[in-house]
Amino acid sequence: MGKGFIECHHKKPLSELEGESLISINDLALVCANCHRMLHREIDTLSIEKLKKLIKDRG
Q1: What are the residues whose beta carbons fall under 8 Å from the beta carbon of 28, sequence distance 6 or more?
Q2: pLDDT in tens, 4-59
Q3: What does residue 14 show for φ and ψ, rounded to 5 degrees?
Q4: Which of 41, 15, 12, 42 shows the shortest CA–CA distance to 27?
Q5: Cα(58)–Cα(28) distance, rounded to whole angstroms?
Q6: Residue-wise burial string across 9-28, b where 16 or more C-beta atoms lie within 10 A, e elsewhere
Q7: What is the pLDDT of residue 26?
Q8: Which of 1, 6, 14, 16 lies 20 to 30 A from 28 at CA?
Q9: Residue 34 burial by CB count (10 A; 0-12/13-18/19+): exposed, middle or buried?
């Protein structure tokens, strides 16, 4: 049912940007909805790299 859907995660939280800011493709990560939720659950401690490692280590 979710095939073909993806979410876009801002690596630097939008709340940390000042005024109007340009965002490049390198500032974004494409993730599934579940991973996006986990990244926002621990926004100060869980990086994309840490989440990848957690997933890999569990497999």
Answers
A1: 8, 9, 10, 11
A2: 899 999 988 888 888 888 889 999 999 999 889 988 887 677 888 888 898 899 87
A3: -60, -30
A4: 12
A5: 25
A6: beeeeeeeeeeeeeeeeeee
A7: 93
A8: 1
A9: exposed
Own/partner pairs for 54-57, CB < 8 Å, 24+ apart? Answer: none
Q: What is the pTM of this model?
A: 0.72
Whether the per-residue pLDDT at 1 is higher than 80: the answer is: no
In degrees and rounded to multiples of 5, residue 13 shows phi and psi of: -55, 140
Amino acid making up residue 50: K
